[in-house]
Design goal:
416 residues, Aspartate Aminotransferase, domain 1, Aspartate Aminotransferase, domain 2, 3-stranded antiparallel β-sheet, 16 helices, 12 strands, 37% helix
């Protein structure tokens, strides 16, 4: 009996990828063992985060790094660092930014629901660019520059497909000319491996990655890397600051030198705690991710999608379409399944619900499922029994998906 069975929670077949709502990626044994080892020992978090920062900096090319409780927490902490810097009084006030510089410039096509993480620090988003015709989705560099004022604390940039937006390197050049840092949301920007260094190389001051997706770390983990002074601000607003000036472990570095007038109190990030287990697990996963054969991963994913396509070929009303790399939203293989409800007998929405109601439930990606009702994409990513990203157990779990789709049409589930 596994722990979920013990508490009466059904496990699911994950055919959607390392989604938060499905518990993220499955962890490799080395990551699990590292977390188990950390769980039985004590360590000063500031010491562990300092060493973690060195490891992260080495892999990203940044001045410093930090382990967060996820990419969203990283974006909140990044915004807070840009507002407060090393001003302990401002740290103490956040998220109250009344009377303070508190604006973050963002291109309109980059605005998504995920920006809530930025606004949580008390900042206001200033949009630039066009949305309607003519110029829909277009931003001009001068629009970014003119939006930067004395109230601007940062420019935010999202790594996403957004034709017409100003590239990061140009954004950074404009922002830095005006003395403003650039925050990059790269939560799902891995793979490719090169992206670990790309955004810092293009001029980003802070970059947030998810730790629980492609990297294969704990779901409640993330990476924030960038300028050392901003990472210092992040640490001061994130860690347990129940400290005394005369016994604080950082007193010589920060108090005796006059960098700070005194230790700050608990900051905005205190509710975003990350444990020693997550920090260690993330570091082990990051080292494994950097060392992986990513080309072999892609070949394996493509082979598995081909097998699923073959299994569904006899089903009337379903059409499998692998996306070309240029059309895929992310740089890994995608498979779309178009559902014709007249031939299949169910709409795509109905199929999603039927799969979720099965035993065991099968969860698929639904990003395109509402694209009309005649031709809707049922699956965007097929990522079965996962250990990290692309590490699969021997027992292939996506065949129950093929079986369920066949059963819905009354065909014998020969591929199960």
């Amino acid at each position: 009996m596994n722990v979920f069975e013990r508490f009466g929670v059904p496990t699911v077949v994950n055919a959607a990828g390392p989604l938060t709502r499905l518990g993220g990626a499955r962890l490799s044994e080395p990551v699990v063992e590292a977390m188990r080892s950390a769980a039985g020992r004590h360590v000063r978090i500031e010491d562990l985060q300092a060493r973690a920062g060195e490891v992260i900096a080495g892999h990203t090319g940044a001045e410093a790094g930090y382990v967060t409780s996820g990419a969203a927490a990283g974006m909140t902490l990044a915004a807070a660092a840009c507002v407060a810097g090393l001003d302990v009084g401002t740290m103490d006030r956040l998220p109250d930014t009344d009377g303070l510089p508190n604006q973050v410039v963002m291109q309109r096509p980059h605005r998504t629901a995920y920006e809530h993480a930025i606004r949580a620090a008390g900042v206001q988003i200033v949009e630039v660019g066009y949305t309607g015709h003519p110029g829909a989705g277009c931003t001009h560099p001068w629009q970014i520059e003119q939006a930067i004022t004395s109230k601007t604390v940062a420019v935010a940039h999202a790594v996403m497909r957004a034709p017409g937006t100003v590239p990061l390197a140009d954004v950074a050049e404009i922002a830095h000319r005006r003395g403003v840092p650039v925050i990059v949301d790269a939560a799902a920007a891995l793979p490719p491996l090169d992206n670990l260094r790309r955004f810092i190389a293009e001029g980003a001051d802070l970059v947030a990655f998810s730790g629980g997706k492609a990297i294969g770390g704990p779901q409640a983990s993330g990476i924030l890397c960038g300028r050392a002074d901003l990472i210092r601000s992040v640490a001061l607003q994130h860690q347990d600051m129940d400290v005394r000036p005369d016994t604080w472990t950082l007193r010589h570095e920060l108090l005796d030198t006059g960098v700070l007038p005194g230790p700050p109190h608990h900051g905005l990030g205190r509710s975003m705690k990350v444990g020693k287990e997550e920090i260690v697990g993330l570091l082990v996963a990051l080292e494994a991710f950097v060392a992986r054969d990513h080309a072999a991963d892609r070949r394996r994913w493509e082979s598995m999608l081909e097998s699923l396509t073959s299994a569904l070929a006899p089903v009337s009303g379903l059409r499998c379409r692998p996306l070309s790399p240029d059309a895929a939203p992310r740089p890994y293989p995608y498979l779309l399944i178009d559902v014709d409800p007249r031939a299949f007998g169910h709409t795509a929405v109905e199929v999603v619900n039927l799969l979720q109601q099965g035993v065991p439930p099968i969860c698929v990606a639904e990003g395109s499922v509402m694209r009309r009702d005649m031709l809707a994409a049922l699956i965007e990513r097929v990522t079965p029994e996962r250990v990290g990203w692309g590490r699969y157990r021997a027992r292939i779990e996506w065949m129950p998906l093929a079986s369920a789709l066949r059963t819905a049409t009354g065909l014998e589930a020969t591929a199960a």
